[in-house]
Design a protein that fits this description.
GO terms for molecular function: oxidoreductase activity. This is AurF domain containing protein. InterPro entries: AurF/CmlI, Ferritin-like_SF, RNR-like. The chain is mainly α. The chain has one domain (about 5-20, about 55-280): Ribonucleotide Reductase, subunit A (Orthogonal Bundle), CATH 1.10.620.20. Helices cover about 70% and strands about 0% of the residues. The chain contains ten helices and no strands. The chain is globular and about 60 Å long. The structure holds fe (ii) ion (FE2) (2 copies).
């Protein structure tokens, strides 16, 4: 595999900053916000529903499935809001700690500006049409005594979360059966996230080469475990007992564990983290 040295990394940062500069799409006036949305519209494709294909999926109870499609889209938007807020804070700290190149810092300011707009439209949608944003369990990725590993994990976490989001955005945005505003929001998010993901991969490959050359075997294993656990956490966060409860299901904790197990067995859970898994394997980190 071709090496990703600092010059190549800085060049990637510069070109991403240029594209962000040229495509300054202010989200604040990008969408039409109707007064309300028809109750019978789907917000999340049925094939993406966590219940799809399981005993909890009942075609005859279409109203409940539509309710769940709203709740599960709002759950994904809510996860974006919480994760983006946490990650913006961490990125600003990384800029301040002085370990990044000037080129990387420049790009990360664009990154923060873009995430701020995403949080605005996700928040607006959830509160206007659903009346709330779901909470999120605190999601910390293992911190290490080694600053280099902790810093690496900050960017690993951002990258994993963005790849999972990108998979969902792409599935929702191409689904004709889903409400148009929901599709447009998912589509808008793909455009900027593809640059964030490109930055993440460049950073993780470049820093990964440096790290792997210096770490002892047990630290490499700890890094690998942290990354695998965060991918698992991202998969499991799609299963929210509160969204089951709001859609009229009962025994929601059991439902959650049944569905996680069901989708582990049929291989659906793996699809959400297929891209980051392949990437980390390719660069030798997991
Ligand atoms: Fe975003
Ligand atoms: Fe992002």
């Amino acid at each position: 595999m071709e090496r990703f040295d600092i010059d190549r990394f800085n060049k990637r940062c510069n070109s991403l900053s240029n594209v962000s500069n040229k495509n300054r799409n202010m989200a604040f006036d990008r969408f039409e916000w109707p007064k309300d949305i028809d109750e019978n519209e789907w917000w999340y494709p049925r094939e993406l529903l966590t219940v799809y294909g399981s005993d909890y999926y009942d075609e005859n109870n279409i109203e409940q499935l539509i309710k769940l499609s709203k709740a599960e889209m709002v759950n994904q938007f809510s996860l974006n809001i919480h994760n983006e807020r946490i990650l913006i804070n961490e990125i600003l700290m990384q800029i301040e700690n002085g370990n990044l190149s000037a080129e990387a810092c420049d790009y990360l300011h664009h990154f923060v500006e873009e995430e701020n707009q995403h949080m605005w439209y996700f928040n607006k949608f959830c509160r206007k049409y659903y009346g709330k944003v779901y909470g999120m369990k605190s999601a910390s990725i293992g911190k290490s005594d080694f600053a280099e590993i902790s810093n690496y994990l900050v960017f690993a976490r951002i990258y994993i979360f963005e790849e999972v989001g990108d998979f969902i955005n792409r599935e929702v945005s191409k689904h004709q059966g889903v409400n148009e505003l929901v599709r447009n929001i998912n589509k808008a998010h793909i455009e900027e996230e593809s640059r964030h993901i490109s930055f993440g991969k460049a950073y993780l490959q470049h820093k990964g080469e440096e790290l792997l050359a210096t770490l002892k075997l047990e630290s490499k294993d700890a890094l690998k475990n942290s990354i695998n656990s965060y991918m698992r956490l991202m998969v499991e966060s799609s299963y929210n007992p509160s969204s089951y409860k709001d859609s009229g299901y009962s025994n929601c904790l059991k439902m959650r564990s049944d569905l996680i197990e069901f989708n582990d067995r049929n291989g659906r859970n793996k699809k959400f983290v297929q891209s980051p898994s392949k990437f980390f394997e390719k660069i030798g980190v997991i």
